[in-house]
Amino acid sequence: MLASLAKQLCARRPVLPQLMESLYEYKERGERPDAKTLEAALMAAMGGFSTVHIVIDAMDECPVLKGERRRLLDTICRTATAAPATLHMLCTSRKEADIGAFDALRNLSSVVLIRKALSELPVGLDATYDRLLQGIDPKFESQVASSLKWLALSSKAFRIEELAEIFILRPDRTVVLDKVERLFKPQDVLKYLSGLVLAYDIPQYPPTDSHTQVRLPHFSIREYLVSDRITKGPAARSAFSEAEAHLHIARSCLAYHLQIGDMDDDEANKCGPFLLGDYISSAWPVHLEVVPRELWPPKVAC
After folding, report:
1. Model confidence over 201-211: pLDDT tens digits?
2. Residues 6+ positions from 120 with CB-CB distance below 8 Å
3. CA distances from 61 to 12, 56, 198 (A)
4. What pTM was computed for the model?
5. SS3 content of the chain, % helix, strand, coil (to 5)
6. What are the residues facing 215 on neighbouring strands?
7. What count of other Cβ atoms lies within 10 Å of the Cβ of residue 276?
8. Residue 134: helix, strand or coil by DSSP?
């Protein structure tokens, strides 16, 4: 990417910068310059322009494996920090967790603040997830934790309407699903899980059957949430084991089912629709069976 950007800029210049000319030596030797040399070449190529616009599209398509995306993000941060004020950069991406760290720049209104924020961005996926988890509003911590357990260990992809229902599902309360807690719009659930979930449209025919599904942006989020690593860091409060998540989902399903079963038709019509009905009826025993029996609640164990 760096070589391509530098080449495009140099194509618009009447004279090549000295540093760019020195890159031909690498070509003659059949070698490729390292990232540091290419970054310096890009800086040199930008010199002399009254303004430079760089657009990097679809960053989410850069592979996560072998650290490729991390290197891309680090390069963008260093470039934006070191570049002259004439540089204007636009990056686009679907909302992946590691790229979502750049959300911190959205409300900053000066070059100094942006460069300071760039220098403080977390390094590595674990640090990125820690920052996202630490940013959860304490008032909604339990709902977010519940939602993450469902997303991490459930056997299906949920529609956004179903996730909005999971978000207000409280298995430890007498009223498990309280209609007054329903969100104004299902999409509102995303603001409580910013950077931690990915919403994507599923087109259907006819178009009226199209819908939005949600999932964790990457398997590494699930892996981190149930790992020992998270318990040793600043986001330890968000950690859970697979058994804890399965048990939570099973208890939620049973509590949900019991509340519906205790309602007459009028009550059900007022409180509904109950969007998770199909899933809970078949999934609760599946989740429960993978939990060691010594962890089962007494009422279930009997």
Report:
1. 888 777 766 78
2. none
3. 28, 11, 14
4. 0.64
5. 60, 10, 35
6. 198
7. 23
8. helix
